[in-house]
UniProtKB/TrEMBL annotation:
Organism, scientific name: Clostridium innocuum
Localization in the cell: Cell membrane
The protein's name: PTS beta-glucoside transporter subunit IIABC
Domain of life of the source: Bacteria
Pfam families: PTS_EIIA_1, PTS_EIIB, PTS_EIIC
GO biological process: phosphoenolpyruvate-dependent sugar phosphotransferase system; trehalose transport
Domain PTS EIIC type-1: 103-474
Transmembrane portions of the chain: 112-136, 142-163, 212-238, 258-280, 301-327, 339-358, 370-389, 395-413, 441-463
Domain PTS EIIA type-1: 513-617
Recorded GO MF terms: kinase activity; protein-N(PI)-phosphohistidine-sugar phosphotransferase activity; protein-phosphocysteine-trehalose phosphotransferase system transporter activity
CDD domains assigned to the protein according to its UniProt record, in alphabetical order: PTS_IIA_glc (cd00210), PTS_IIB_glc (cd00212)
Length: 644
């Protein structure tokens, strides 16, 4: 029996059993009973239960305050009452699978976008300096700067393991270890093929022929190179998050601290390696063979397909099937013309990012676009794809279409590359024909221009900034704020939490709800709203959006958990008068419009408008300090979270 099952049974017993319960609902922090006889409930016994914060009686409800684990307790308690569980936001609003996938990918990449763009620019500048003859490729300067720029991309699973663990609710350090295991040199296909002889070859004589170098207790492991990949680590971390939740239910608390991570790693990694290797290997081989077959019939069509799908293939790690073909063609024929139509994609991405940068009124987006445009021209497009194009969706589709147009042109002109090496604009020297003629290089330049022009035209015709979820009020310009707290030690980190509302500031102790006013649920303050609009106080992920939309929780990129509870007892409205502009699990930016509510309707119905804004993981920080201002706007700093 789990901790939550035990707690649920004890709570039900102390409220008088299921026969004393008329109904049960829950909000973001508390179980809300309607009891037949409140006098039967044992208040003090409930308060003394480990896992119960306090007990309150308000608005005809008997409220058992649990805190962040209320959903877990409710899930165990509801079946005991045969109560119908409320639908989550995802259940109530059927999300498209593609939208969900894009939200997950962009949310996972968001924390590392800045450093990705920086590393991409370093790689490009290193290539530029080498091309200009400032140093040779064999020099120490080149190798050290290349390591600085390339390390993040080589060990990308390490970083994505951490960020995807935060996204899926797995312990971040477990996710980090999973990424490290996937980058471990000894399991990479290139390392195995260089040091071991194949045990045997599966599907020998077919297009699926795959050498097997190791097995896992007799089960063949089809290996691949996991460094620089994206989808494999996300898949394994997601699976690991499910394993962790399962093991947490039956592993005793005494050994849970180390035993659950151990079981999670021992189950998730082998299954992941056994499944991902074959899927990625066979999938990429099918795609490569299909493109080659189509090229034998129509080089233009094959080139268009490569250009159209290349960015998608890279996201799923299915582009590796082209690499052996590419290398074999250059070694055997002296050139490659099968894979090279992908060259257009780099510049399609850069052109689309350039248009977004020129059109957007969002200062943050402009700041993000500039380094990603430069990085893309140098051949490093990952930061731009994951940080800008995928979240906006339509620009990503446009970049794929423009890449397809350029790829079709390259296929039609039999565009070739004569040697390996270089990225982006630094690939042009490898396109000069061995006899010194300029024909192929001119085709390369013409294809780039055609691709970029197509991308610009398509963006001007079909892209509108509002499709990015932006409007005049969507992203408020943030400014530098003077600290209201003086004499703060210089070694303390001050994490600023902006106000989500316009209104008057109240001390938390003044809130007419004991669970909030006593600081039981966390420190913070409250706002009496002057307008019915709620904005994101931080950059982060909307981790909780209650189905009734009266409360929401955001986990910032710094790990601060912010709870915004609009009014008191407003859960009783069951969502009436509330309109959400975002979905649970979605990535949000500081100042983004999250929610609207009918302020007049709440007043007319007699609800208290006091809106607590609290830090639910208060115990993780040294202190939570409130602003000294009496009135705040959505771009004013409301709370200072002090961290050592």
């Amino acid at each position: 029996m789990t901790v939550y099952e035990t707690l649920a049974k004890e709570i039900l017993n102390y409220v008088g059993g299921k026969d004393n319960v008329n109904s049960l609902t829950h909000c973001i922090t508390r179980l809300r009973f309607k009891l037949k006889e409140e006098s039967i409930a044992q208040d003090e016994a409930l308060k003394n239960l480990e896992g119960v914060v306090t007990v309150m009686k308000s608005a005809g409800q008997y409220q058992v305050v649990i805190g962040n684990q209320v959903q877990d307790v409710y899930e165990q308690l509801a079946p005991l009452l045969h109560a119908e569980q409320p639908q989550t936001v995802q259940g109530a609003e059927k999300e498209k699978l593609l939208d969900r996938f894009v939200d997950i990918i962009s949310g996972i990449f968001q924390p590392i976008l800045g450093i990705m763009a920086a590393c991409g620019m370093i790689k490009g500048l290193n290539m530029l300096f080498m091309t200009l003859g400032l140093y040779a490729e064999t020099s120490g300067g080149y190798m050290i700067i290349n390591a600085i720029g390339d390390a993040l991309f080589t060990f990308l699973p390490l970083f994505l393991g951490y960020t995807s663990a935060r996204k899926f609710g797995l312990k971040p350090m477990v996710g980090l270890v999973i990424g490290g295991i996937m980058c471990y040199p000894g399991i990479q296909s290139s390392a195995l093929s260089g040091s071991l002889k194949p045990l045997y070859t599966m599907f020998e004589g077919t297009m699926f022929a795959s050498p097997v170098y190791i097995d896992f207790f007799g089960i063949p492991v089809i290996s691949m190179d996991y460094t620089s990949t994206v989808i494999p680590v996300i898949f394994i971390v997601y699976f690991a998050s499910k394993c962790e939740k399962l093991f947490s239910k039956f592993v005793p608390d005494l050994v849970k601290f180390f035993f659950v991570p151990m079981l999670t790693l021992l189950v998730a990694l082998p299954i992941g390696f056994l499944l991902i290797g074959p899927v990625a290997t066979f999938g990429s081989k099918i795609i490569a063979e299909t493109i080659i077959s189509i090229r034998n019939v129509s080089p233009m069509l094959a080139g268009g397909l490569v250009g159209l799908t290349w960015q998608i293939l890279v996201i799923f790690g299915l582009h590796w099937g082209f690499i052996p073909v590419y290398i074999n063609n250059i070694v055997t024929n002296g050139y490659d013309n099968v894979m090279m139509p992908f060259f257009a994609c780099t510049f399609a991405t850069s052109a689309v990012i350039l248009v977004i940068m020129l059109k957007t009124r969002d200062r943050k987006m402009k700041e993000l676009c500039l380094p990603n445009f430069i990085s893309g021209i140098f051949g490093v497009t990952e930061p731009g794809i994951y940080g800008i194009l995928l979240p906006l969706k339509k620009p990503f589709i446009i970049s794929c279409i423009a890449g397809g147009i350029g790829g079709a042109f390259y296929g039609f002109c039999n565009f070739r590359k004569f040697s390996m090496g270089g990225m982006g604009i630094f690939e042009f020297p490898a396109m000069m024909e061995p006899d010194g003629s300029w024909g192929n290089l001119l085709v390369a330049i013409s294809g780039v221009l055609l691709t970029m022009i197509a991308a610009v035209i398509l963006m001007l015709l079909f892209y509108r900034e509002k499709e990015a979820g932006q409007s005049d009020k969507t992203m408020l310009d943030t400014k530098e704020h003077e600290k209201s707290v003086e004499d703060t030690p210089a070694l303390l980190e001050d994490i600023a939490i902006c106000s989500p509302l316009k209104g008057d500031v109240l001390e938390l102790a003044q809130v007419e709800d004991a669970a909030f006013s006593a600081g039981i649920l966390g420190k913070g303050c409250a706002i009496v709203p002057a307008e019915g609009e709620v904005y994101a106080p931080v950059d982060g992920v909307l981790t909780t959006l209650f189905p009734t939309k009266h409360a929401l929780g955001i986990t910032s990129d710094d790990g601060v958990e912010v709870l915004i509870h609009i009014g008191l007892n407003t859960v009783q409205l069951n969502g009436e008068g509330f309109t959400a502009h975002v979905q649970q699990g979605e990535r949000v930016s500081r100042g983004q419009h999250l929610l609207s509510f009918d302020l007049a309707e709440l007043k007319d119905k007699g609800y208290c408008l006091q809106t607590p804004v609290i830090i639910t993981n208060t115990n993780d920080y040294l202190e939570i300090l409130s602003t000294m201002q009496k009135e705040v706007m959505p771009d004013d700093v409301l709370l200072h979270v002090m961290n050592s």
